[in-house]
């Protein structure tokens, strides 16, 4: 069934809470079509009862399974004929020092945040290029401030987002402009979602004994991220994301939060100083012509 030309078709992962849920609600209220994917579809029972199947398709999806991702996209295409925007949002958090997090927990996090996001990325690009007519689509990759800068008690979460940033930047440079595929990284700071405040999508590892001093950065970050001091409003943020999705020529990055802006400025300054101080070290490293 083809969608009305006035409605955009969105494919959203991680739609049970946080950005995914709030964006799903916003889009449905304004008349867009949403394929909402999540691990437990029952979380959207109330929403599903409020909208017809011609506007909302709820699918169970574990993004760590590449075949399941492909099947979900196929269901979406069968229902609506095309997908205009993919909001690649499913994710988890793991709060703990690098020395404190066990390998199993770290691998589970990377399976969702990197490999899960990769499966969605690959299928989204294929659909935009090979299924949509006319060709094209928008891929919005949900990264983080911690995909730009490392942070205490966040080493593996940060690693997963750094990996997603590198993958996305490489993809961005690979795509043929003729395919009309627009890719952007959404980089939120601290927002009140299930990734913070002791929510269901954050695994809190007990502190490593060497880092229990409350004056250390990791202890301070643990206290902040699980407290009411997290001030980002996800409802307001998704309104910005929706507005961003309408830009004809969107920038590659959308930083969302004053902490992200501050971190970017600090990193730009640090990189500039490094270039000035260390540029000469790359002289005389080359074969003589």
3D structure, described in words:
With 289 residues, the chain is an alpha/beta fold. 42% of the residues lie in helices and 15% in strands. The protein has eight helices and nine strands. The strands form two sheets. Strands 3-2-1-4-6-7-9 form a seven-stranded parallel beta sheet, sandwiched between helices. Strands 5-8 form a two-stranded parallel sheet. The longest helix is centred in the middle third of the chain and has 28 residues, at 103-130. It starts with 8 loop residues before the first strand and ends in an 11-residue tail after the last helix. GO terms for molecular function: oxidoreductase activity. Belongs to the short-chain dehydrogenases/reductases (SDR) family.
List the helices and strands and how they pair.
Layout: E1 9-12, H1 18-29, E2 33-38, H2 45-50, E3 56-60, H3 66-80, E4 85-88, E5 93-95, H4 103-130, E6 137-142, H5 155-174, E7 181-188, E8 202-204, H6 217-225, H7 234-244, E9 253-256, H8 258-278
Parallel strand pairs: 1-2, 1-4, 2-3, 4-6, 5-8, 6-7, 7-9
Helix pairs in contact: 1-7, 3-4, 4-5
Helix content, binned percent = 40-55%
Structural class: alpha/beta
Radius of gyration: 20 Å
CATH architecture level-2 label? 3-Layer(aba) Sandwich
CATH fold description? Rossmann fold
CATH superfamily: NAD(P)-binding Rossmann-like Domain
Q: Briefly, what CATH class?
A: Alpha Beta
| Residues in β-strands, percent | 5-15%
Strand order of the largest sheet: 3-2-1-4-6-7-9
Order of helices and strands: EHEHEHEEHEHEEHHEH
Mean pLDDT: 94
Tally of helical runs: 8
Task: Tell me the distance between the termini.
Answer: 64 Å
Which stretches are poorly predicted, pLDDT < 50 over at least 5 residues? 1-5
Main sheet?
Answer: 7 strands, parallel
Count the beta strands. Answer: 9
């Amino acid at each position: 069934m083809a969608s009305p030309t006035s409605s955009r078709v969105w494919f959203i992962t991680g739609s049970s809470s946080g950005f995914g849920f709030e964006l799903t609600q916003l889009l449905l209220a304004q008349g867009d079509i949403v394929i909402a994917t999540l691990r437990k579809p029952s979380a959207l029972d109330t929403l599903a009862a409020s909208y017809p199947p011609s506007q909302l398709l709820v699918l169970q999806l574990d993004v760590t399974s590449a075949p399941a991702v492909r099947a979900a996209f196929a269901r979406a295409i069968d229902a609506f004929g095309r997908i205009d925007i993919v909001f690649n949002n499913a994710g988890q958090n793991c709060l703990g020092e690098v020395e404190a997090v066990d390998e199993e927990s770290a691998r589970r996090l990377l399976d969702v945040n990197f490999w899960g996001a990769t499966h969605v990325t690959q299928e989204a690009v294929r659909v935009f290029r090979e299924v949509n007519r006319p060709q094209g689509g928008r891929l919005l990759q949900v990264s983080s401030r911690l995909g730009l800068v490392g942070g205490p008690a966040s080493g593996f979460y940060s690693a997963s987002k750094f990996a997603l940033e590198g993958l996305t930047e490489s993809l961005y440079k690979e795509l043929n402009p003729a395919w009309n595929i627009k890719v952007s990284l959404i980089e939120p700071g601290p927002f009140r979602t299930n990734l913070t405040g002791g929510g269901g999508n954050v695994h809190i590892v007990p502190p490593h004994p060497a880092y229990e001093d409350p004056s250390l950065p990791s202890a301070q970050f643990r206290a902040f991220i699980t407290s009411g001091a997290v001030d980002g409003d996800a409802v307001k943020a998704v309104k910005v994301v929706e507005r961003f999705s309408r830009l004809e020529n969107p920038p590659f990055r959308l930083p969302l939060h004053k902490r992200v802006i501050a971190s970017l400025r600090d990193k730009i300054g640090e990189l500039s100083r490094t270039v000035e101080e260390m540029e000469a070290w790359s002289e005389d490293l080359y074969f003589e012509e």
